[in-house]
Design a protein that fits this description.
Layout (H helix, E strand, L loop, with lengths): L1 E3 L3 H16 L7 E5 L1 E9 L4 H15 L2 E7 L14 E9 L12 E4 L2 H7 L8 E5 L5 H6 L16 E5 L1 H8 L7 H5 L2 H12 L5 H10 L4 H20 L5 E5 L10 E6 H16 L3 E5 L6 H7 L7 E5 L3 H13 L3 E6 L1 H17 L3 E7 L16 H6 L9 E2 L6 H16 L2 E7 H5 L1 E5 L19 E2 L5 E2 L42 H16 L8 E2 L6 E6 L3 H13 L5 E5 L1 E3 L5 H5 L4 E6 L4 H10 L4 E4 L8 H13 L1
Parallel strand pairs: 2-9, 3-6, 6-7, 7-8, 11-12, 11-13, 13-14, 14-16, 15-16, 21-22, 21-24, 24-25
Antiparallel strand pairs: 1-10, 3-5, 4-5, 10-17, 15-23, 18-19, 20-22
Helix pairs in contact: 2-7, 5-7, 7-9, 8-9, 10-11, 10-15, 12-13, 18-21
């Protein structure tokens, strides 16, 4: 869903119309309070449709023009045990009339569809917040299942909150009584009732959701009509009930965005679009060889829809076959990609090493998740950095890039493709579950803003022997990039041999010569070290003594924490890395300017280890590995301690 940011004059006209509408409100109309931001969390069983509900609310919020950030959180099981704490699925959305960076630390509104949802999320809800509870699900058995001896709706434990008891299930069934549905089928629409109620509370548009429901259930018109009726019933309930005397308005965040066309986008979708854009800018077919794995599978699903752009997708029988096919496609002249998560990277490591030896462009997309082994499939982590750096036998250096926000995954994909194509090397792109599933507004770029990635394939011989014979040497390098030529198999006169055994410099013939191996190892390392990456930018308005350095998805929480500290009068500098191998050339000089360097990571200190080893800087780690992103207040407290220390 897209929205166009209007001009200042248009915004003024819209504001005047809004004031006029307020003046014309009929007597008895409910009060409308204006807020600058709201954090809402929908929570229920994994079968209650909380992700769909959150996604629809998010889409309408994006079309309205608010800045937003989301945090889906769901179990790993396909159908987790109903009514249990491990089976709770939630979706948190933070939206505002100004620039925001995180899904928010704590919800202002919790929609709890059952006792498990209430108990699992109540610890995050601050006193005074609103809690909308589906009272129909608070049966004795359901409460005992999660350890409630008495009903929290009656024992006073929720006295500090603004509780709205709503029989969502009963109201939904009543709204659908004219439909030819069983009670169980009707109950499934209670999430749409809740969505309608929240849409009324926060003045969200409804047209997009109505069109979505019609399209989603086009082959089941009775189900489409039932969901639409439940959605409208929720809206009408908010409008008429006395329990909700106030609705809220959060104005569009027009000042936060440059003029342009925007849409809400998740990290995996942005990454998919970035890969397609890179293939078009390179004028190469895009080939994805992949095996499904959470949370990377959505990239395979999305790219499979775009055959019209020359995209070919192959769902392999396992991880090794997926990357093997991708590497073969690279040999054949495609922009080749393989997608996975941490456990899949381990299986792909031998073929990544082969790609290093063959010196072919290959994008290895790692959507990181909690480990080790299969670990926490649906939770986020940043713990694959050292695996990306060193997880291969022998000296096998690979460039590593990392996006910072969901929308930034688009640009990171293009940058990874640039490096792979220019330097003939596999490239790691390290996203994570938080970025992959989270979403934010994204300005759709114009095509002339995208870089030219055009590749020149070798067309003829590139070396002359002593006897004057012209031949093709597959490992004769570009003196600037140290990249070897890329010749399409079958090109007359350019027949050549590649494989995993060490090659002779230039000719590519098999070589066991110790001096040649030493030279080739050092040359491959020099090629990676020589990659042209931008200098790291430092945000330091007050010549601080403490620098907070981050990478990947910690950008949002770190930046939000830094803003809080500066608002409180503290002086702190911030820098964020996109390129993790090689590091920006000015990074060492930047680090030496500060007395203290703090590195927050969702691991046990992997970037800090690399920084200490390379720059001999006493970097301090601040680490979290609980499957969730940092909270801004939590980071602000830790950084304040570093400043004071």
């Amino acid at each position: 869903m897209t929205s166009q940011v209007s001009s200042p004059a248009e915004q003024a006209d819209e504001a005047a119309l809004g004031e006029l509408r307020e003046q014309r409100k009929p007597a008895g109309t409910k009060d409308v309070r204006r807020l600058d931001r709201v954090i809402i969390r929908f929570a229920g069983d994994s079968g209650d449709g909380m992700q769909l509900t959150g996604d629809r609310f998010t889409s309408e919020t994006a079309s309205f023009g608010n800045d937003l950030s989301t945090l889906p959180n769901f179990p790993a099981e396909i159908r987790a045990p109903a009514g249990t704490l491990p089976g709770v699925s939630s979706f948190q959305l933070h939206f505002a009339d100004h620039d925001i960076l995180t899904p928010g630390d704590a919800p202002n509104v919790l929609v709890a569809m059952n006792p498990a949802a209430l108990k699992a999320n109540l610890g995050d809800v601050p006193r005074g917040a609103e809690i909308i509870v589906n009272t129909d699900e608070f049966t004795k058995r359901a409460m005992q299942k999660v350890g409630y001896a008495t009903s929290p709706l009656e024992d006073g434990s929720l006295d500090g909150y603004s509780v709205h008891p709503v029989p969502l299930t009963t109201l939904t069934v009543e709204a659908l009584k004219t439909f030819d549905l069983s009670r169980k089928e009707a109950e499934r629409s209670k999430n749409m009732f809740a969505l309608g109620l929240l849409s009324w509370m926060y003045h969200r548009p409804t047209e997009g959701t109505e069109k979505f429901l019609a399209a989603k259930f086009a082959k089941k018109p009775e189900i489409a009509a039932a969901n639409l009726a439940a959605f409208r019933a929720g809206w009408n309930f908010g409008e008429t009930t006395e329990d909700f005397a106030v609705s809220y308005e959060v104005a569009p965040a027009a000042a936060a965005f440059p003029v342009g066309t925007y849409r809400n986008i998740s990290g995996n979708l942005a990454l998919s679009y970035g890969l397609i854009a890179a293939s078009r800018q390179a004028d190469l077919p895009l080939y994805l060889g992949s095996y499904p794995i959470t949370p990377a599978s959505d990239i395979l699903h999305e790219l499979s829809r775009h055959k019209n752009f020359g995209v070919r997708t192959f769902q392999a029988e396992d991880e090794i076959a997926g990357i093997g096919a991708a590497l073969g496609a690279a040999f054949g002249g495609s922009l080749a990609v393989t997608t996975t998560s941490g456990p899949g990277v381990a299986l792909k490591s031998e073929t990544i090493g082969l790609a290093v030896s063959l010196e072919l462009p290959l994008l290895v997309i790692d959507i990181q998740r909690g480990g080790p082994s299969t670990g926490l499939p649906t939770k986020t982590e940043q713990a694959d950095l050292l695996q990306a750096m060193y997880g291969r036998n022998g000296e096998a250096p690979v460039p590593v890039v990392a996006p910072r926000t969901p929308a930034d995954c688009f640009d990171a994909a293009i940058e990874a493709a640039r490096i792979a194509l220019t330097y003939r090397t596999p490239v790691f792109l390290l996203s994570d579950g938080y970025l992959a599933n989270g979403s934010e507004p994204w300005r759709i770029p114009e095509t002339d803003e995208l870089p030219d990635l055009t590749v020149q394939f070798t067309q003829g011989p590139n070396h002359t022997l002593d006897d004057g014979t012209e031949v093709f040497w597959p490992y004769k390098r570009d003196p600037e990039t140290l990249a070897r030529p890329w010749a399409i198999p079958g090109t007359p006169g350019l027949e050549h041999r590649i494989g995993g055994i060490e090659k002779q410099d230039g000719t590519g013939n098999i070589s066991y010569d110790p001096a040649n191996h030493d030279f080739m190892v050092r040359t491959r390392q020099a090629k990676i070290d020589g990659i042209d990456v931008p200098d790291v930018e430092v945000d330091d308005p007050h010549e601080a003594r403490t620098l907070v350095l981050g990478w990947g998805s910690t950008y949002g929480p770190i930046t939000a924490a830094v803003r809080r500290l500066r608002t409180a009068g503290e002086s702190i500098a911030q820098a964020h890395l996109r390129h993790l191998n090689p590091f920006p050339r000015n990074l060492g000089a930047v680090l030496r300017r500060y007395d203290r360097v703090v590195i927050p990571e969702m691991n046990l200190g992997q970037l800090a280890t690399l920084i200490r080893a390379k720059y001999l800087v006493d970097a301090h780690s601040y680490n979290q590995v609980n499957g969730m992103p940092f909270k801004a207040e939590q980071l602000a407290t830790a950084l304040k301690e570093a400043i004071d220390g």
